[in-house]
């Protein structure tokens, strides 16, 4: 009797021939295939139902045959084998890695704690991102739950105490370059109204926003995954991050998308039509 591989090869050979036919001929062949499959599925469904009632061992024995199993799987009459939990968690993390890596971040699996918990660690930029809790809940946690419905808790193992309990006000992105003096960063007429101006200071990137005579200064980094904001669309005093659309009120730095986070702001003073910023409160 031919084995599974030989049988599948034969099907593939005919499918390759049919794929060369013109569309109307292909439709006839596909229609015939579907009709035969429907007949087989109806017969198999009835067979399984009867076997289940008469003898489960006989059914298990039959399904152990690779050809029977492959055909039942094709007709969705048996469930596909469940991958181990660790493999499904890794698949979920692989799915979110490209997004995290595009922001110089990453995630690693720390531990699986049956029956319902997975512990992960955000690394790189993501570990210190003011919105790392959000990254966790929105991206990583959702991906893990999609692949592993039995997991209901995804917790972050902390590299440092701020990862699980983010307090934007306590984080200085410029900790190594902090200054407490007022620094002139622009002339006031360089800061156009209804937009933002990006300025660099000692390797730090800031954005300035002016409404009349009032100028606001924020770190040029979205509280979601740290993308620069200067190319974000500004409308009605609200800036939209070009990366994933988080929105912020430029008057206050308040995030409208995720109320738990906000832009990091810095004191500003205007003197002789010059804008001065102090990076340390
Ligand atoms: S980095 Fe994602 S919305 Fe800004």
Give a structural overview.
This protein folds into 3 domains: about 70 residues, no CATH class; about 80 residues, Fe-S cluster assembly (FSCA) (GMP Synthetase, Chain A, domain 3), CATH 3.30.300; about 100 residues, 3-layer Sandwich (Rieske Iron-sulfur Protein). It has a 4-stranded antiparallel β-sheet with strand order 5-6-7-11, with no helix packed on it. It has a 3-stranded mixed β-sheet with strand order 1-2-3. About 5% of the residues have low confidence. It is of the alpha+beta class and about 280 residues long. It has 7 helices and 13 strands. The protein binds FE2/S2 (inorganic) cluster. The site of FE2/S2 (inorganic) cluster has 9 residues, from loops.
Assembly state here? Answer: single chain
Annotated CATH homologous superfamily of the largest domain: Rieske [2Fe-2S] iron-sulphur domain
Strand order of the largest sheet: 5-6-7-11
Number of strands: 13
The largest sheet is: 4 strands, antiparallel
CATH third-tier fold name of the largest domain:
Rieske Iron-sulfur Protein
Name every ligand kind in the structure.
FE2/S2 (inorganic) cluster
- How much beta, percentage-wise? 15-25%
- Helix content estimate: 25-40%
**How many discrete domains?**
3
Which stretches are poorly predicted, pLDDT < 50 over at least 5 residues?
A: 160-178
Would you list the SSEs in sequence order as H and E?
HHHHHEEHHEEEEEEEEEEE
Could you give the distance between the termini?
A: 81 Å
Count of DSSP H/I helices:
7
The Cα radius of gyration reads 30 Å
Second CATH tier, the architecture of the largest domain: 3-layer Sandwich
Structural class estimated from helices and strands: alpha+beta
**Class of the largest domain, according to the CATH hierarchy?**
Mainly Beta
Instruction: Identify the overall geometry.
Output: elongated
Mean pLDDT: 82
């Amino acid at each position: 009797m031919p084995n599974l591989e030989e049988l599948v090869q034969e099907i593939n050979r005919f499918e390759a021939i049919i794929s060369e036919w013109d569309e109307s001929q292909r439709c006839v062949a596909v229609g015939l295939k579907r009709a035969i499959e429907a007949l087989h599925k109806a017969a198999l469904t009835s067979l399984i139902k009867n076997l289940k009632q008469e003898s489960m061992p006989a059914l298990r024995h039959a399904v152990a045959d690779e050809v029977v199993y492959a055909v039942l799987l094709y007709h969705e009459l048996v469930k596909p084998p469940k991958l181990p939990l660790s493999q499904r968690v890794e698949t979920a993390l692989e799915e979110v890695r490209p997004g995290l890596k595009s922001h110089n971040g990453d995630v690693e699996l720390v531990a699986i704690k049956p029956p319902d918990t997975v512990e992960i660690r955000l690394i790189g930029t993501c570990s210190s991102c003011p919105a790392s809790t959000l990254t966790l809940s929105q991206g990583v946690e959702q991906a893990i739950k999609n692949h592993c419905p039995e997991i209901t808790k995804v917790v972050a193992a902390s590299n440092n105490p701020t990862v699980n309990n983010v307090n934007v006000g306590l984080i200085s992105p410029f900790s190594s370059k902090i200054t407490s003096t007022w620094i002139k960063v622009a002339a006031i007429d360089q800061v156009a109204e209804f937009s933002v101006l990006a300025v660099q200071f000692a390797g730090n990137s800031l954005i300035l926003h002016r409404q009349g005579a009032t100028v606001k200064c924020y770190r040029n980094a979205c509280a979601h995954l740290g993308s620069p904001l200067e190319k974000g669309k500004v409308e009605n005093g609200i800036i939209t991050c070009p990366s994933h659309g988080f929105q912020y009120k430029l008057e206050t730095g308040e995030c409208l998308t995720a109320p738990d986070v906000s832009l990091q702001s810095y004191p500003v003073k205007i003197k002789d039509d010059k804008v001065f910023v102090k990076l340390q409160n």
